[in-house]
Amino acid sequence: MKIVISNRSAVPIYEQIKNLIKEAILSGEISEDEMLPSIRQLAKDLKISVITTTRAYKDLEEEGFVISIQGKGSFVLPRNNEWVRETVLRQIEECFEQALSIAEINDWKLAELQEILTQIYQERKNEKRD
Fold this sequence. Notes:
The protein contains five helices and two strands. By secondary structure, the protein is mainly alpha-helical. Helix 1 crosses helix 3 and helix 2 (about 40-45) packs across helix 3 (about 50-60). The longest helix has 25 residues, at about 80-105.
């Protein structure tokens, strides 16, 4: 697993780490029961504070992605498919909320948004075939 953070991002570093690890878990890049790098090692590798990596791991644990065992490390928990589905739905809803806010400001109608979504969906579907 490669973690690349950006100091120029508006997203806090601990959140970037958390999101990258979550993506790796959800994509299967990191397997169930796999041990994550130690908090200290990750901080050293990324040249950041241990406090920052601790926060990322703590959030991952609270969200049900990992479990930390004192003296042994942090391990990926088995995927709870229903929980993963809810997480993804929440992310999609947030994106739709943002799109609706922009559309309302510009007085766009629902049909126009649906047309855009359909077009993007078709383009991606066609790209996967190629």
